[in-house]
Amino acid sequence: MKVFISGVAGFLGSHLAESFTKNGHGVVGCDNMIGGDLQNLPEGIQFEEADCGDVEKMKRLLVDVDVIYHCGAIATEGLSVFSPAIIAKHVFGNTAGLLAAAASRNVRRFVYCSSMARYGKGAPPFREDQAAAPVDPYGIAKYAGELLVKNVSETHGMEFLIAVPHNIIGPRQKYDDPFRNVASIMINRMLQGKQPIIYGDGEQRRCFSFVQDCVDPLIKMGTLPDLSGQVINIGPDEEAATINELARILAELLSFDLDPIYVADRPLEVKHAVCSADKARQILGYRTSVTLREGLLSMVSWIRQNGVKPFHYHLPIEIDSPLVPSTWRDRLI
C-alpha cells in the first residue's frame, strides 16, 4: 500500500510514517516546516517540503497513493483567538487543497485528523454523536474541515474517516513552541530551572494520550474495511488530570521544587475537556498501553537527550488586543 502523510516532519506525522515504513508500506509525505523538523523524518520515505494548499504540487505527490492521512495543521488553539487568519489558511485552506488533489487522483481513502476542539464546551466525556460546538477559531476551522472532507469525499466517491486525537504527548513533540504543548513547555522550563507557568487556577482537566496509542488506531482507520464516514475519538478516557496535577507529576519525575507561576485565564479555554474512547474500543480494539507517568517520563528523557531550547515565538499575533496573554506579548515563557 502507498500512503501519503501531510505534516510528516511533525510529531504525529513522523511517528505514523515510521510505523508504516516498518511494516513495508510505501510512504510519501510533505511538510511546510512551520512546525516540522527534518530530524523527525524516518528513513525510506519520499519527502518534499511543500504546503498542502499547492494543489498542483499535491497532485504530483499523490500519484498512485491509496490512503491519505492529513495530520498537517498549525495546532495552536489558544493562539487562534488572536491569529484567526493564519489558522484558517493552514487548517481549513490546506485541507481544501489536499482534498482537491486527492479527488482528482482517485485516492481511495482520506483520513482527516480533526481535534477535540470540535466539541467546545459540550458535556464531557465528549462522544462522537454529540453536536459539534467549537468555541474558538481553531475548533471552528477544524470542524469546517470535517464538513469539507465529507462533502468532497461523498461527491467524488472517496472513502473518508474523521479521527479526533487529543492532547498527544511523547518524544519528538515540539518543545520550544510557547503557544502549544503544555507538558513539553513545562518540561523544557523545569529542565532550565524555571517554574512552570499555569493559566487561570490550573484546574482545567484533560486526558493525555501517548503518541503510539494514537498511531495504532490511526493505522486501523486507514486500513480496515467498512469504516467510511465514521468519526472516532482517538485517545484515552482514563487518568484525567488537571494542569496542576500535570505540573506536580512532572516535578516529581524531575525532582523539581515546584512553585508554579499563575497568570490570567486564556480567553475561550474550555475548562473540562475529556473524550470517551468507547467507540474506538468497540470498532478499533483500542486500548491504552502507556500510562501518563510513563509517557511523561519518555518525554523527559527525550528532551534531556536533545537538550533544552529557548522558546521561539515563530507565529504572528494578528489581533493585538488587551486580551493577549502577557506570556506571549512580553515573551515570558
What keyword list fits this structure?
333 residues; 2 domains; 7-stranded parallel beta sheet; 3-stranded mixed beta sheet; 11 helices; 14 strands; 38% helix
Write a structural description.
The protein has 333 residues and is α/β, with parallel strands linked by helices. The protein has two domains: 193 residues, Rossmann fold; 114 residues, UDP-galactose 4-epimerase, domain 1, CATH 3.90.25. Helices cover 38% and strands 15% of the residues. The chain is built from eleven helices and 14 strands. The protein has a seven-stranded parallel sheet with strand order 3-2-1-4-5-6-11, with helices on both faces. Strands 12-9-14 form a three-stranded mixed sheet. Strands 7-10 form a two-stranded parallel ribbon. The longest helix is centred in the N-terminal third of the chain and has 21 residues. The protein is globular, with a radius of gyration of 19 Å. The termini are far apart. The mean pLDDT is 97.
Distance between the termini: 43 Å
Major sheet: 7 strands, parallel
Question: What spatial order of strands do you see in the largest sheet?
Answer: 3-2-1-4-5-6-11
Structural class: alpha/beta
User: Number of DSSP strands?
Assistant: 14
Question: What fraction strand?
Answer: 15-25%
Total helix count?
11
- The assigned CATH architecture of the largest domain is 3-Layer(aba) Sandwich
